[in-house]
Amino acid sequence: MKSAGQLSVAGLTILLGLGTFGCGEREAPLSEAGPSTQNQSQSNQVESSTNSEPALGFVGLLSDGSFAKATENLSTEMKRAMSANQLKALWQQLLTGGGKYLSSEVFKRTTEEGFHCVFVLCKFQNASITLKIVLNEKDQIAGLWLQ
Question: pTM (2 decimals)?
């Protein structure tokens, strides 16, 4: 199976820059992202969300072809940057490059500058892609990256 770095899909850079939020400096395995982060003294570290459902639900909507419904979960800024048609085009490109969608699972969560980052491994027939989904305080999708 190809890794995300080996998957060649034209146009995937659409999402690489969406969202202006961190979530990269204090990465911890999912098992460590729970209550233990509550006592950290860094000023930009906040309690990690225990709810990965918005991210998994978003991927589920994409895999079901419910792109208009998926945009309902986007923050105002993301709605301006990403339409249902753009989400559809992105998902189609993933299917073209990776083959049939098989499954997804959360494998890591981080918190940075008040935003919760959920890393979802999406498995396709011929490749695996990591989606880094950034959630705001309302559990809306405020950033989206392909890794």
Answer: 0.70
